[in-house]
Amino acid sequence: MIFAENLTKQFDQFVAVDGVNLDVPQGNVLVLLGPNGAGKTTTVRMLTSILRPTRGMARVAGYDVVKEARQVRSVVGVLTEQHGLYGRMNADEYLDFFGQLYGLERNHSGRRSLELLERFGLAEDRKKRLSSYSKGMRQKLSLARALLHQPPVLLLDEPTSAMDPESARMVRDAISSLRSADRTIVLCTHNLAEAEELADQVAIIRKGRIIRWGELNELKQQLLGPTQFEAMLSRHVDGWQGSLPEGVSLTLREGYRLRFQIRDPQNTNPALLRSLLADQLDVISFQEVPHSLESAYIEAVRLAKED
Ligand SMILES: Nc1ncnc2c1ncn2[C@@H]1O[C@H](COP(=O)(O)OP(=O)(O)OP(=O)(O)O)[C@@H](O)[C@H]1O
């Protein structure tokens, strides 16, 4: 649904995006992560035909972002950092204006606008001038605008950055339900918990280049190694030296806890539990210790700096 090959943007001598390749299938959420100035917004702008690439190509829903810019704009909903809001308008007028721009039938556009304003908690304020809106309110209205024409592709640049926790939750829930409705979404965020909740794929971009890209759990494994499991036992394990099945290594022995790195948990965990029991260690609990995306991200950036 979103495809880019060698996508590059140069501003004078400075290469902001450097040979980016992307392939996001329909219904997937790709989260773009990266330090400030890494090239995320510039990438999104090229994908929405706002900026013309210096080199390379991209297609969105089958349309070329350079040669078919008009079609691209009709199939994407965009939320970028600088949303131009028209201060003298109110929310109704603003969405009506965009409804006309998208060629929506007036009644349909009105119903859809009200539905979106209600969804994002703006219905009560819809007659107020936009100049009186807070940053978060503006952001929610921009998101309503991006969703107005029910586009199959959404490109969202930091959609929850200015929002209070309740509004951010509302927006995340909206993104989740859009994903289940088969929308394809590219999301830039610095909020790693948000990325973890919403991403199917993650691309980490640094200095204009994608340094890592993959399905969320694969990427974590790649960067942090196999998943760890922790056993809580009924007695102290200091000094315990039991034998472990093949493919298991002990990574922590402390108090009542043992932690293991396990190459093939599916097949090895039953043998591991049997061997603990054989050593008279009664297991109170045994569970996976999830890798966090934050640790994976920090590791990816650390490795890239080392290179
Ligand atoms: N119009 C422009 N002219 C010159 N340089 C630009 C322009 N737009 C962006 N840049 C530069 O390109 C680089 C990438 O910027 P971009 O906004 O894409 O980063 P980003 O990853 O979105 O950062 P952030 O996380 O801070 O939003 C930055 O160094 C920025 O200064």
TrEMBL record:
Domain ABC transporter, chain residue ranges per copy: 2-232
Protein name per UniProt: ABC transporter domain-containing protein
InterPro entries documented for this protein: AAA+_ATPase, ABC_transporter-like_ATP-bd, ABC_transporter-like_CS, ABC_transporter_ATP-binding, DrrA1/2-like_C, P-loop_NTPase
Source organism superkingdom: Bacteria
Keyword ATP-binding on entry: yes
Keywords: ATP-binding, Nucleotide-binding, Transport
Claim: Cytoplasm is one of the keywords in the record: no
Stored SUPFAM superfamilies: P-loop containing nucleoside triphosphate hydrolases (SSF52540)
Similarity comment text for this entry: Belongs to the ABC transporter superfamily.
Organism of origin: Ornatilinea apprima
An example Gene Ontology molecular-function term: ATP hydrolysis activity
Signal peptide boundaries: none
Residues passing through the membrane, by range: none
Coiled-coil zones: none
